[in-house]
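PT: before anyone asks, these are the final sequences, not the draft ones from last week. 693 residues across everything. Please model them as a single complex and drop the result in this thread when it's through.
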Amino acid sequence: MTHVLPRTSAPTASVVVPAFNAAATLEHTLTSLRLQTYQDLEIIVVDDGSTDDTPQIAQAIARQDPRLRVVRQANRGLAGARNSGIAAARAGYIGFCDADDQWAPGKLAAHIAHLDANPLVGLSFSGSQLMDENGALMRRAQKPRLTGIGAAHIFKRNPVGNGSVPVLRRAALESIAWRPSCERERDWVFDETFRQSEDIECWLRLALSTDWEIEGIRGLLTRYRITSGGLSAATDRQFAAWERMVEKLTPLDPQFFDRYAPTARAYQLRYLARRAVSDGRGVEARRLLRRAFASSPWPLIEEPIRSGVTLAAATLVDRPLGRALHRVATRPASA
Amino acid sequence: MTFLKDPALCASRDLTRVVHLVDDTTPGGVMRYLDFLRADATLAKAAEHILRPVSRGEVGRLSLDCEVIVSHLSVNWRALPSLIALRARNTAARLIHVEHSYTAGFTALNVPSRTRFFTLLRSAYALFDTVVAVSAAQGEWLRTRALVPWDRLEIIRPAVDLSDFASLPAPRAQPRVIGAFGRLDRQKGFDTLILAFRRIPGNDRVLRLHGAGADLAMLKSLAAGDARIQFHGHVADPSRAMSEVDIVAMPSRWEAYGIAALEARVAGRPLVATSVDGLRDHAGPGVTLVRPGAVDELAEALLVTTSSGQTSAERDALATLSETATRDGWSRLTLRDKHSNNARHAKIEIPSLNRASA
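LR: through. Structure below.
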């Protein structure tokens, strides 16, 4: 690995890595960031009160690579860790990579080129390749629409996809930052009262309260780890957080939410149904899908194939044929 | 050389004619602003400000006998051809556009395709010699989004006749009436104001909404069951309505400047407003800015706000300063016109002078 000398001036990009008990995956994540072809970056690991070896691992790598810094705090959750990372970041471009995900080597270079060439774009995103729990690449990917991204599309389809995708302009983050009265140390960009849906809350707030463009670039530049939740309680919590996001943001523009919330809710329920299918919970998947299409039929019209596949999968998932198909669909890419 | 016509002398004899084009003459901030410009004695010494209401179709057919044309027109794709024609038919006149509508906040909530919208604005603004922003915040937006080159951008905040507001008695020390002024329209955010007000307990507070608009029924249904919330319809006399109010709330979703905020400050009323666009220009003593859409923050601000703490001398000073700044801005714009005309004349005249003296 090339050795980069310490520097005093701000780098071009900061990558914030929120890490909570991530000892098993952190080193891979950081290696993927240190191996970025675009080298003028700083990596800020925010140890969010881990009780495992996460801080030691991060410190050890920081000793080898002066571009890496470790910020430690008592546990504040993902949003709180990202906010601390943003406060510590010095660069004009700020990206995020969760401590169990990875970046493809050219990711940062591609986003910087995109942002440099498009001064109206405040958030640059790309697609993701999915990894299984062991880090093996799967034949599944998130391939979002890249252009023509308005607030309605973000609300319905969240093209940013996951929290290890976006690279933002500092000015865009600053434009949605605020200081809650309970906060003494630094601003909030992500809403720390959310333990789930904090990403979509932030991107939708950016879309509805600023004129920054949100735009994607080609390529599957993030490797995003899928972990099976396995509990329907988790699904309920996740949906409750999503509904709280809707409730929170509605005063920004009630007409917008009147118009798009039923369809967005249907997509969100369909997404949760797909997660339930992945975890083999057929009854729950079918229940979620019924709720989804009762909320709005638009996912059937806008995305008939995906909705149809989800319906079929939910119907078959607890039968032998369904289990076989599921194995095929989720087999590793190398198989 | 006394027989030579002195162009500078000519220009100073005739007043510069400034024609203001308006396509929306409904009573409101823009019309009161134009009333101020037309009635102002200082401005009248340098230029004659003429109001010219126009229909959309008419704009492109105008050939005006004046030195300066000021557009207060709305810019959109349909209006673009007529703006091009206006430029083409009035090549000698200096063309100024005052942007009363568009802001970052407007774009955020109304424009799905920002790139396309910015292309429209750039194309339209390029037809004008100067684009006037009505607030520093809007000017900053026009500049950072590269919609107007910095050397064509002026910032002149609007003013209205503020004397009635400056002379109002101070509000009650224990605020009782919260007032809001404006069209009952999504832009003004009165829905969030009603939600916030309903979180304030007790019966000692009243919320008065002054204005008319399409959202009346919706707002009334939000207010249903809370007798403290009153709808007063459109106000003919804003300063009188202000006199009955102790706190002014302006929870707008976007606002190019917000002349009502200035009126509230001059009236010595504490102001609670959203920190969007031109409302940020009003930051100062007695002004609380809250995030748009944050109902809890708005409720908290309305609850804790008591007095603006402004003395009547400070209120007078604010009124005078605002009017002076607006006047100076327009004097600068019209004077610049005179200078550039002189320079144009001078370029033509100097060679002949040289020949005559040779």
